[in-house]
Amino acid sequence: MSTVSRRRLLVGGLGLLAAAGCQADNKPQAVSARVADQTAAAAAQTPEAVTVVRALSYARGGDVRMVVYRPEGITQAALPVCLAMHDRGANADAFGDMGIVAALTEMVKAGGKPFALAALDGGDTSWTTAGKDDPGRMLREEVPAWLTRQGLATTVFGSLGVGTGAYGALDYVTQPGVAVTALLDPKLFADFADARADGGVATDEAWHAVDPFRNVEKLGNVAVGIWSGAADPAASRLAGAVKAEVTEIGAGGADFRKRKLVGVLAFLGDQGIRINGGY
Fold first, then answer.
1. What is the CATH number of domain 47-276?
2. Residue boundaries of the structural domains of the chain
């Protein structure tokens, strides 16, 4: 059995203590640096709340702008998507002007499941076909690939229509797999003459293709919610025809759309989860 002198033991012990002291001094610095690196990496992986992209649409015959709105601070990959259709005379920025990012963020903080809203510039024909310009085909055939390139889910679970965007929203959800649509202040036309004058609808055929009262059966089991600030008989009639899950009509006032937005988004998310089993 080897023997270690007291001196050697003392010197060795001091050396160990010195080494331990260095390690103790350095460890917090290493942890701090590691935490800082992780924080920076997480920040780099968090997508912007608003992303604007341009894509060539063969269905529209030119470049189209898509604006993606996300809740603040969400890093979830392949975030579920709801498409948003703006009113005639507006564009995809209309949803940002309504405060959609703040509303999405508030909805998530209240316990809602996060999703992204993808809005596109839809032209001036209330989302109906006009000659070679076919926004409905763009939504069905081209948008899924655009969403994938943005790291979002390819399959869209629902739609939101504002004003005459209601026609695009209702038409979109007639395809299989789409679970829910919400109409915020929908503007509904009585006939083709009205649709052409106020909605820019080009032909009677295009009008018949999107008139919801002619196409109720195509909605199947889609959940529909309707919020209208005005006491609109057409909105009330549509709510009855589609057996709307939520109907709020005539409760207007200042900033009606902004005030209802969080509830509208919660409805879209909740119904998407219920019908699609978590989207």
1. 3.40.50.1820
2. 1-45, 47-276
